[in-house]
Amino acid sequence: MTLGHFAVIDTETTGLFPGNHDRIAEIAVITMDRSGAVLDRWETLINPERDLGKQSIHGIRAKDILDAPRFSDVADELDWRLSGTIVVAHNLGFDARFLRAEFHRAGLELPDFYLPRGLCTMQMAHEYLPGAGRSLQDCCDSFSIELRHAHSAGDDAEAAAVLLSRYMELDPDLGDWDFLLTEAAETSWRQTPLTPLREPAHRSSAGSLEPHFVDRIVVRLPEISGPAEHHEYLALLDRALLDRYLSAHEKSALVATADDLGIGQTTVRELHGKYFASVSAVAWADGSLTGDELNELTTIAGLLGISAQQLEAASQATQETVPPVPDTTALTSSFLVPGDLVVLTGDMSRPRNAIEAELEEAGFTPHGAVTKKVKLLVAADPDSLSGKARKARSYGIPVVGEDYLWNRLLRSPGN
């Protein structure tokens, strides 16, 4: 008797409604045999081609999915991975709706029989864990199964796979297990994927070190740039550092700009040093350096790759020892004037209407769409892929994070 396998899946999504505009942002497939042995773990982030929704829930950052495959890029491989399996998920109905919608959008369809015959470990808990609760964490707790990172597709799928194996251990003689796996083997529809397999994209680990963006700028000998090119690069740096944060989009833009202008690594580092010196001069202009100003200098030093020695010197300087402020002073919220249009995008920490009310009280004009007249886009994630964010970048409108809104633009009490 030839048996198929279980394909335990989990998806992380931008929201709850696949029939509307929500998409899969991460998917995992754990392949498991009848004995409960895990044969393979495959997972990848998915570029949903829109903003990521409530990032506080799934924890996926926009910069992690910039180079991730779209669902259509992995649909053929996923179709192959699911062939010959019984699909399993904790709350299968939710994942099934998203899978069906994404495959349809990609121009593919799973066999009609596939999703309806799947197993839901949440529904099975009514039989095997009466009264335990329906969440994956509740069910795992009943067996002391470790759920390492909730709302990570790979770890959730692995926990659900262990949960299924515990169900099978509780009911080893149930004939349905073998019957389903035999049926899976007999109805396999794919032997090999039609296209080369895509390299999966994974979340950035907290301890991983990302190469500094300056290291991506080419070394040029000799350089063909001059003062005009340097000023243009610094002007872009001004805008990028508006919220004292460099998004992945902004780093890539700085690298591309340096390349277009013929500026090499050595000059970029010199320009960063001059920029940092100008910020230091502003901080020391009143003859003292506050704790907030020191924190700001430290932040900017980290973003620009400023040496520890230069940061130390800046922190100990005096009004007499700092250089005069050059023309390339950093932008502040003063580049906005009363009446300027400000657009919001993404799920913020406060209700949208409350934020818009504060903007109006501060003299700005909240606007619902990005046009060339808009002066600023505030995004829940500065690397957002929402339509508003894409349009703002194409117009050269600064895209800043929510911290900028509270700490610089509105300076709301209690923040």
Automatic annotation (TrEMBL):
Per its UniProt record, what PANTHER family does this chain match? DNA POLYMERASE III SUBUNIT EPSILON (PTHR30231), PROTEIN NEN2 (PTHR30231:SF4)
Q: Which Pfam families has this protein been placed in?
A: BRCT, RNase_T
InterPro entries under this entry? BRCT_dom (IPR001357), BRCT_dom_sf (IPR036420), Ribonucl_H (IPR013520), RNaseH-like_sf (IPR012337), RNaseH_sf (IPR036397), TerB-like (IPR029024)
- Keywords tagged on the record: Exonuclease, Hydrolase, Nuclease, Nucleotidyltransferase, Transferase
Q: What is its EC number?
A: 2.7.7.7
Which species is the source of this protein?
Paeniglutamicibacter sulfureus
- Determine if Nuclease is one of this entry's keywords: yes
Output this protein's name. Answer: DNA polymerase-3 subunit epsilon
- Give all residue intervals belonging to the Exonuclease domain: 5-173
Any one GO MF term held by the record is: DNA-directed DNA polymerase activity
